UniProtKB/TrEMBL annotation:
Protein name: F-box domain-containing protein
Organism: Trametes pubescens (White-rot fungus)
């Protein structure tokens, strides 16, 4: 037996399977994975090669690779002795490296598939001259990282020599932070990105964060033509970020003509003067971060893609210009008019300026243009502060307009507080169980439901479970539900009705969905208790049903055996 174990540990396929079990994909994505794999690499010769490959495949910082160079290792140890809590910066490497050391360095670099710059301080570890030094050591012997697939969180040096050394034929995705075309850069960074695109024909995913507004105007359209996915956003709030970090008119014109671009995430703070274009004809998914209030509406009117299926609009970054109720209808008109084949729509609101005292018809009127999107499967409206008021008639209209819905989420993070003292009162037009019957009938594929209000008086539960006299869809597959503010008088009776309408609700996932969306605010304790108690009661109903079905099955088997 011992001999068989010994033979097995020399079988490369078996070793690979064991390492694959500890690090799926043969790369470490977390520190918890790195520890057991590192132990395998240290203590076992048999596991050394596959475990080492897994350790180096995802490099969390370039620092680990640089320690293989004796000159850098010596500098680092000396610096840490004098500055235990400091960070080594601006290292200039110049010493000769032995062939054996360089071979070890190249061997480790060849295993790297995913590279991150690590902590922000790691950005400044190497001086520009050190990257030129590495380029000289490399010579004409192929890419420095021949297996590299992704580069994340990378801030290039002034010369951008580091970007050129990252290029390889297998490279697929690059994320670059703080790359500019002025302040002494002399266009070197866009040209370096252009070289990377040319030398990495498989690079189709590019992310730029807080870069010059005219960045793409310095790159030839031929080099950009291979891009399928593009991010251009800012990592600071609108009131802090320079306007020069948002894409300008010229950059948008360049991007609008890219033939293969299918996925775009763009942060806008536009000057509408001389910003005319029409394009983006290949987009499938689009995310707009609107920092100017109205930029999303303006952009959609210039987006001509008939293939657009997923649209996300983020309005949470508005500071100086508040989003008003009057802005909702034009936005919905633009969405419906320019995305006729849309399947998924998400809109994130910060808060509405001068939020009026609402009536349900306000949301129904604003969203009515969206009823033209008959293929819509996902609708999400998220509000950071405040609330929408819904009613049975609003949800019934939604259900009739979008029969293909799979997910409907209208959720809030923080509510307007109600007046303390005594029990809170439900809104007079709140949602009742009647709307659940409508959703069950009209939306047979609905699986996720998250709504702001639910009012369940005793008379809606007792007697007939079908409160509106219409049939619901038996065996409906809805499995996750959350209610932001539930006013439920009898949790057990309400749970029985829910179990009857939606027999496949998953209590665990429903509870988790609610808790993720709402902090334990004291003012919402009443609603929190009401909904969580209802879920607990629903779990009891499901257990009773399962036990009854099991008893019936056992009785049937006994009867069959007796015959």
């Amino acid at each position: 037996m011992a001999g068989m174990k010994h033979v097995a540990l020399h079988d490369a396929d078996i070793l690979e399977l064991i390492v694959e079990h500890l690090a799926p994909g043969k790369e470490c994505t977390s520190e918890a994975q790195r520890q057991p794999i590192s132990a395998l690499a240290r203590v076992s010769k048999a596991f050394h090669i596959p475990a080492t490959k897994a350790l180096w495949a995802r490099l969390p910082s370039l620092h680990h690779l640089l320690l293989l160079l004796p000159e850098f290792d010596t500098m680092y140890r000396a610096y840490r002795t004098e500055h235990p809590f400091g960070d080594l910066k601006d290292v200039r490497l110049s010493e000769r490296v032995s062939p054996a050391t360089w071979a070890r360095f190249r061997n480790r670099a060849a295993a790297v598939r995913h590279l991150s710059q690590g902590r922000f301080s790691d950005v400044l570890v190497l001086h520009d001259e050190s990257w030129s030094y590495l380029a000289r050591l490399l010579g004409d012997h192929g890419p420095l990282f021949p297996s590299l697939r992704t580069v994340s969180g990378w801030q290039p040096t002034t010369s951008c020599e580091d970007l050129r050394l990252l290029a390889c034929p297998l490279l697929q995705s690059v994320a670059i932070y703080h790359a500019f075309t002025d302040q002494g850069w002399a266009g070197s960074c866009p040209l370096a990105v252009q070289d990377v695109l040319i030398n990495a024909p498989g690079l189709t995913d590019l992310k730029l964060v807080s870069c010059s507004d005219d960045f793409f105007t310095h790159i030839t359209p031929e080099a950009l033509a291979q891009l399928r996915s593009l991010w251009f956003e800012v990592d600071q709030p609108t009131d802090c970020a320079p306007r020069e970090w948002y894409p300008n008119a010229a950059a948008l014109r360049v991007l609008s003509a890219l033939p293969a671009l299918e996925h775009l995430r763009v942060e806008l703070a536009l000057d509408y003067n001389d910003t005319e274009f029409m394009g983006f004809g290949s987009l499938i998914t689009l995310c707009i971060l609107d920092s100017g209030c109205g930029d999303a509406t303006w952009f959609l009117e210039r987006c001509s893609s008939p293939r657009l299926r997923e649209l996300t609009i983020d309005l949470t970054n508005l500071y100086f210009q508040e989003f008003e109720w009057e802005d909702m209808h034009p936005l919905c008109v633009a969405i419906a008019g320019h995305t006729p084949q849309l399947r998924e729509l998400q809109i994130f609101f910060g808060f509405f300026g001068e939020m009026p005292e609402q009536i349900p018809d306000m949301l129904l009127t604003a969203a009515h243009p969206l009823f033209a999107l008959r293929h819509l499967t996902t609708l999400s409206l998220w509000l950071s502060y405040g609330e929408f008021i819904l009613s049975d008639s609003v949800l019934e209209a939604f259900a009739e307009a979008w029969p293909a819905l799979v997910s409907l989420e209208i959720c809030f993070s923080t509510f307007r507080p109600y007046t303390p003292g005594g029990l809170p009162r439900p809104h007079p037009a709140s949602v009742t169980l009647r709307s659940f019957h409508a959703l069950s009938r009209h939306c047979p594929h609905l699986q996720v439901l998250h709504i702001p209000h639910l009012y369940v008086p005793p008379e809606d539960c007792y007697g007939s479970v079908n409160v509106d006299g219409a049939e619901h869809s038996p065996g409906h597959q809805l499995w996750k539900m959350a209610i932001c503010r539930a006013f439920i008088v009898d949790a057990h009776a309400c749970a029985q009705v829910l179990h009857h309408i939606f027999p496949h609700l998953d209590v665990g996932h429903s509870r988790a969905a609610y808790l993720r969306s709402h902090d334990a605010c004291q003012e919402d304790h009443f609603f929190r208790t009401a909904w969580l108690n209802t879920l607990d009661a629903l779990e009891g109903c499901q257990t009773s049903t399962s036990n009854a079905e099991l008893s019936y099955h056992d009785a049937s088997q006994c009867e069959s055996s007796g015959r």
